[in-house]
Design a protein that fits this description.
This protein is mainly alpha-helical and 126 residues long. The protein has 3 domains: 1-33, no CATH class; 35-87, no CATH class; 90-126, no CATH class. It is built from 3 helices and 2 strands; from the N terminus they run αββαα. It has helices at residues 24-32, 65-87, 113-125, and strands spanning 38-39, 46-47. The chain has a two-stranded antiparallel sheet with strand order 1-2. Strand 1 and strand 2 form a beta hairpin. The longest helix is centred in the middle third of the chain and has 23 residues, at 65-87. It is elongated and about 65 Å long.
Length: 126
């Protein structure tokens, strides 16, 4: 693991066990800086995240129409998946077998291992 030879904030040489900053003051100053730009995983455009969490999409209100459409499509797809899960139908391509829920754990998505394999292979092709 490579460590910085100088403090990332003030540039003074680091000593001993110091790895990135020379003091708590410099560490806090770096934490207060605005987070770096990130790239939206849907539209590929850079955006400024508003928090420090795992934000991977443009903020919906600030996004352009194209990215908002992609986010809407993704939300619709997620809602369809959840509805299919609640209805208890297999998510395999061309399969409408009913699923039974045992009452414990996560509900199954596919009626059989063969149906699961067909679904993953169809997803890999597209």
């Amino acid at each position: 693991m490579d460590f910085e030879p100088d403090c990332l904030h003030c540039g003074t040489p680091l000593e001993g066990r110091q790895r990135r900053t020379c003091s708590a003051r410099c560490r806090k100053a770096i934490q207060r800086q605005a987070p770096a730009l990130r790239v939206c995983r849907l539209c590929g455009q850079p955006f400024q995240p508003t928090g420090r969490g795992r934000v991977t999409l443009c903020p919906y209100d600030d996004a352009d129409d194209f990215c908002q459409g992609l986010q809407d499509d993704q939300e619709d797809l997620q809602a369809a998946r959840l509805a299919a899960r609640e209805e208890g139908q297999c998510e395999g391509p061309g399969c409408s077998s009913p699923l039974t829920y045992g009452g414990r754990g996560r509900p199954s998505r596919f009626c059989s291992p063969a149906c699961k394999t067909r679904a993953y292979r169809a997803e890999a092709r597209s």
